[in-house]
Amino acid sequence: MGKYRWGILGPGRIAGKFAEGMRTVSDAVPYAVGSRDKSRAEDYAKKYGFEKTYSSYRELAVDPNVDIVYVATPHTFHEEASLLCMENGKAVICEKPFAVNTRQAERMIECAGKNKVFLMEAMWTRFLPAICKVWELISSGTIGNVRLIYADFGFKAGVNPEHRLFAPALAGGSLLDVGIYNLSLCSMIFGNLPDYVQSTMTIGSTGVDEECSVLLKYDGGQSALLHSAIRLNTPHEAKIIGEDGRIEIPSYWQAKSLKLINGEGTQEFSLPYEATGYQFEAMEVMRCLDEGIKESPLMPLEESLAIIKIMDKIRKDNKLRYPRDEN
Question: Per CATH, which fold does 129-272+307-326 belong to?
Answer without folding.
Answer: Dihydrodipicolinate Reductase; domain 2 (3.30.360)
